[in-house]
Design brief:
This protein is of the alpha+beta class. It has 3 helices and 2 strands; from the N terminus they run H-H-H-E-E. It has a two-stranded antiparallel ribbon. Helix 2 packs across helix 3. The longest helix has 15 residues. It is globular, with a radius of gyration of 19 Å. The relative contact order is 0.13.
């Protein structure tokens, strides 16, 4: 597999790709909060229940089909738009958990392995979200 110090290794190419892709990403999103950010992170999580009515779900699925995207993509775009409107500028990074054992060294191990993929959205390019991107 090589190492990131070997410039020709696959991992070095992946590292370079992600370093370039995530370059200039804001350290944190500046959003209005109900209390000050603690001086020291606790790393405790919370759940926020969300109920989507069946009719709204149907309409979201229809919107996804009309634009040939997944429901996940519609919801991710909606979240990025919401964060921008709340004051987070137009460069929105959203962490998305992904599962998988891409390294053969992990194949024999027992347990749940999860990574975080950063979905970076530029909401200044196409605020309506309706135009098809140039591919």
């Amino acid at each position: 597999m090589g190492s990131e110090t070997d410039p020709e290794s696959p991992i070095a190419h992946q590292f370079a790709f992600w370093k370039k892709t995530l370059e200039g990403l804001p350290e944190q999103l500046e959003l209005p909060t109900d209390r000050p950010r603690p001086a020291r992170a606790s790393y405790r999580g919370q759940r926020v229940p969300l109920h989507i009515e069946p009719e709204l779900h149907r309409r979201l699925v229809l919107l996804a089909r009309q634009h040939q995207v997944s429901l996940f993509m519609v919801l991710q775009a909606a979240l990025a738009t919401l964060l921008t409107r709340l004051g987070a500028d137009a460069d929105i990074p959203i962490g998305c958990p992904i599962a998988g054992r891409t390294d053969s060294a992990l194949e024999e191990l027992v347990g749940f392995f999860v990574n975080t993929l950063v979905l970076r959205t530029d909401t200044s390019v196409n605020p309506s979200g309706r135009a098809q991107p140039d591919l």
